User: Fold these one by one.
Assistant:
Number 1:
Amino acid sequence: MSSALIIGGGPAGATAAILLARAGQTVTLIERAPGPIDKVCGDFLSGEAVTLARSLGVEPLSLGAQPVTHLRLISGTRIAETALPFPAFSLSRRRFDEALLRTAEAAGAKVLRGHAVTGLDLDTTRIGVRTQGLGIISADRVFLATGKHDLRGAPRIAQSDPRLRPIGLKMYYRLTPSAAAALAGHVELILFPSGYAGLQTVEDGHAVLCLLTAPTRDLAGPTGWTHLLDRLTAACPHLRHRLDGAQPLLDRPLAIAGVPYGYLHQPHGAEPKTLFRIGDQAAVIPSLTGDGVAIAMHSAAMAVGASLRGEDATQFAANLHRALARQMRIAGVVHKAGTKPGLQHLVVWAARTWPGVMRWVAAVTRVSGGG
Ligand SMILES: Cc1cc2nc3c(=O)[nH]c(=O)nc-3n(C[C@H](O)[C@H](O)[C@H](O)COP(=O)(O)OP(=O)(O)OC[C@H]3O[C@@H](n4cnc5c(N)ncnc54)[C@H](O)[C@@H]3O)c2cc1C
């Protein structure tokens, strides 16, 4: 029987593992983290992500997910609000990703945690996977699902200067009861000069603030996070109000630099036809769409479908590229408008004047189909 190796146990890798194992394949998944971890992510689960999770047998509500029915868009003192055009939830990635990995194990996938893959040898028909602690493993098909982390031997082709790419940061809070009540059921998207932040409640009465900023000197040194927050709360009284009296729940924020927004993998002949890139290894959509997890799961389902039909990774990548190109283009335009200081007030004014525009944008930046 042919063997599949999955590198990375996020939503993309775990989805692929579940589907391959349920199709009777021999599957091994290698994840470098030894146990559940927090990830830099706004923890927003779009309607598509929820549908895909349920189709795999993972019910976000039973994990403590909070329903999100409305979007608030905020710039300075301007606020626009609209109902989301799809049912959505918020749930920590620590809990969501863990549930997917456990489902993969229950489906029969071998999940090896606490082992990092250090590189790939791509010059053979069977790809060699170098690992920490497990030696070199070879497999007929490899599903590359390491998220934003590139592996030695299989870098993504850079589409922008890494030094100019944004930085993602995340902190959990316990808000005051009145702030938590005002936030319930909403995802708040706060635009600020050089970036935007998402704020929403998650399970256990916690709230998550996840933000994206252009590289900034504010972040230098041990007090960088405090400086940045001071600047944001000064620019946005709404955020200051929300965080007044809030208790941070992590010692320091989680951070990721050099986020390659807009990256969409172009199939090319130099890569083996047995290397399927899925999740952020295939496409990195701007996070204000809140659809990255759905794309990760959707791309995994498409890759598994292709490999079970005997299609190669180049065909799969071309089909995925076609399926995502329009969504990625629109998301890129929205991201640019949302991060341009001169346009941010205008964006919120337009959203308040024509709330249908916000719903339209939310709808057209979704991945189509449930896998
Ligand atoms: C600031 C920000 C906010 C976001 N907010 C949202 C949001 O609210 N909603 C949403 O849907 N999307 C959001 N996204 C996007 C979303 O987080 C990603 O699209 C999604 O996590 C991609 O899933 P993945 O499985 O491809 O990668 P990941 O979730 O990153 O998983 C990759 C896994 O691979 C493992 N790994 C990495 N390297 C190795 C290695 N060498 N060996 C073994 N294992 C390895 C990692 O430990 C990790 O578990 C956001 C992104 C950013 C940057």
Note: The CA atoms of residues 38 and 277 lie 23 Å apart.
Number 2:
Amino acid sequence: MTASLVSEPLDIASIRADFPILQKILPEGQPLVYLDNAATAQKPRAVIDKLVEVFEGYNANANRAAHTLAAMIDLELDAARSKVAALLNARSTDEVIFTPGTTAGLNMLAWGWARKFLKPGDELVISLMEHHANFVPWQQAALATGATLKFFPLTPDGRLDLDRLSETITPQTRLVALTAMSNVLGTINPIAAIAARVREVGAVFVVDGAQSVPHGPVDVQNPDIDFLVFSAHKIYGPTGVGVLYGKESRLRELEPSIFGGNMIRSVRVDGSEWADLPARFEAGTPAIAEAIALGTAIDYVQAIGLDRIAAHERMLTERAYAGLSEIDGLRILGPAVAHRGAILAFTVEGVHPRDLGELLDQQRGIAIRVGHHCAMPLHESLGLASSARASFAVYNTRDEADALVNGVARAVKSLRRKRS
Ligand SMILES: Cc1ncc(COP(=O)(O)O)c(C=O)c1O
């Protein structure tokens, strides 16, 4: 992609027209302003149509039968796997495992890698900014194996403290699992610097790509990472499906943790042999139509260009960041805009995030998320129980960023008036 194309503004009106739900008028009469994209993104018509096409046209189980529909579904599923491999720059489609989502992928690694290899004295590094999906599985694996769970120190503004990289990732470190982008602080983490240190000490690097893959280009070979997980539903695809990318040599070390049909080469009464990659990690019937429609979602973002999506979302984030920062008593969590993606979590002095979220929804049709965003340890470390979070996607507009700022300003005034 050339620089001039990247800087060319997107035709957001025509992108919005691709998403049926964005045409919705809410029961109170306002149009929907959907700013909860970090939780799940809306689906373009092409993805919805693909699901219908599969179920109406060639629904069959995958990898099993010899009939016409089965051949069609297998072709489509293979095509979707190739699209994922191309998106991530994987070396082969054998490195792409379809999973039920990010959470499932991380659990597969915690069960099949961490519990297999870790022992007392080994170290496992995560950070306080991790989503519970990239926190609890490792915590439990550490408890089960006697390995030590270590936390990558954060700077006061919510970034990984690279000055402490070599004391954090040490020769005792066996595995490092970090998010590429925080779902609360919005921090974009320096994956390349961490990958280099992980290589130096010979550990395994797991990247949680749930928030990063939908918002910009990714290349699993550069920087060199071992495993990367993401969910289709955050990249405009269906729920119920996600991806575990694994470097082939690492996947060969990984033990399957879900057993049954499709993942075996042979089963005897006294033992079983596993199928080759990727089937070994895809026991049972996968979310076939959903995986195929993930392929369509990937086509969709690639047709726009992930660089251009990132540039558009950066503009929205800068605009909303500047506007929200002007509101008296409002504190944006996380670093300056240069270090963050399209997520703005914040608190407002004297205002409960839930009241703010409800008012924005009821009076202005603005959907944001309130709560701990599955990051309780992070909130606790900030002295908070919850926060409000707005997050952008490709279809959001400047006007919506402004509506957020104006809506929050007015809601805060009215909630403060009510209190006094
Ligand atoms: C950073 C991060 N990791 C993991 C997850 C879990 O994703 P899923 O619920 O799709 O498994 C999320 C979801 O919000 C997330 O933001």
Note: The two ends are 55 Å apart (CA to CA).
